[in-house]
Amino acid sequence: MTEVTAIKTSAAQSAAEQPMVRFENVCKRYGNLVVLDDLNLEIARGEKVAIIGPSGSGKTTVLRMLMTLERIDGGVIWVDGEPMTHMMRSGQMVPAAQKHLRRVRSKIGMVFQHFNLFPHMTALQNCIEAPITVLKMSRKEAEARATELLDMVGLADKKGHYPAQLSGGQQQRVAIARALAMRPKVMLFDEVTSALDPELVGEVLHVIRQLGAEHDLTMLMVTHQMGFAKEFADRVCFFYQGKIAEQGVPQELFGAPKNERTKQFLRAVLESV
Amino acid sequence: MIWDWDYTFEILPVLAQAAIVTIEATAIGFVLALVLGLILAILRMSGPKVGWCVSVFIEFIRSTPLLIQIFFLYFVFPSFGVTLDAFVAGVIALGLHYGCYCAEVYRAGLEGVHRGQWEACTALNLSSLNTFKNIILPQAIPPIVPVLGNYLVALFKETPLLSAIAVMEMMQTAKILGSETFRYTEPITLVGIAFLIMSLVSAALIRLVERRLNLRSAK
Questions:
Q1: Which of A242, B32, B192, B193 registers the highest number of CB atoms within 10 A of its CB?
Q2: Residue ranges of domains in chain B, CATH in brackets
Q3: Of the candidates A75, A10, A81, A74, which has an alpha carbon nearest to the alpha carbon of residue A43?
């Protein structure tokens, strides 16, 4: 079966049967450096996947490619049953046009390591900017939704505060509310607790835990919080040198890792705690 | 007596009228410079080919004297069928010249906005226009206000060059008054004082704007 035929066949399958996210032979290079090498990864609807691995293993790049912050050098990324990085034109798969990219990308939300809140806007303004300008919500509706979300992350009383007036943990919770305001189907968390003081980590993880319990979101998180990954994720992927060296349910991967590099990594991480 | 007070009071209304022309040329020229500078800065960052062309244009304008640009617009353009009024030619030259300086200031401001802000806009699916207008520019502008303010004062002090094409701003008016009476001391001194006062007032206003912006970003 040719590649084009295979792609056509997959496109014909109903979206519901498809995984929520699929990386198909995805490659990413920076010059001669191969960051991701022929990545194949499927994430089911509602699945919570933790991505762990040493620095430079390509784990953050996976999220950044999915959020279209990085271009891919090969392969196709599928979201919700349709190709995101490519589109069909005259029966051929061609690189996606900006319009297509924006449409498919709207299904994804991302929370960053350094929050990336808009510093000139209050917590509430951060949460309503995109719903008003992108989703064309009325200001009243957007504010009601944003207030609800800020309440959910425990910051209803801080909605008039600017990011500089909030702690790191509070800023990250606003960032989560802001991403949720766009009603994504997939949420990406990129080392969301790495920039926080240790005592603030818990409040952010609590919000993510709550999200996982109350919403049917597909979640991908790059994390160094092994304990949280073990408790929260349905599956853990260990990345090493641009490839998934090992993956499995948390109990299996943390309890009895098979790959030698996974064992070394987990031993090093546990020793540092 | 070197200084003639009667003559001073006689020419003051005439110079005040000319001061309005100077202020108009400054205001219109600076608005033009701000708009043109922003357009050039955006074009410069838009891609390698366009960016290169814009860089060459900016270097060309910045490396040639403003007076030549004024003469070119006023005396050379008519050869190509474009005849401009002296005031219009002068204002365009001021706007063009300072627009190229402002472009560099804008570029520094835009590059100073953290990359994460652009990425957050992509993650929220904001359009390029909304990203720029609502997120990036409001962060890029406050830090560059003092530099833009300096260019406003500099542009204001360059307006006497418009006298070279007979725009009736303060310097040209002072020269005419002097040539009519052979008394240059009063008109030229008054023009100097007027420039000093207006420059100091402008600098104070810029500091006020800067303080307000700093207060807002410190919230």
A1: A242
A2: 5-218 (1.10.3720.10)
A3: A81
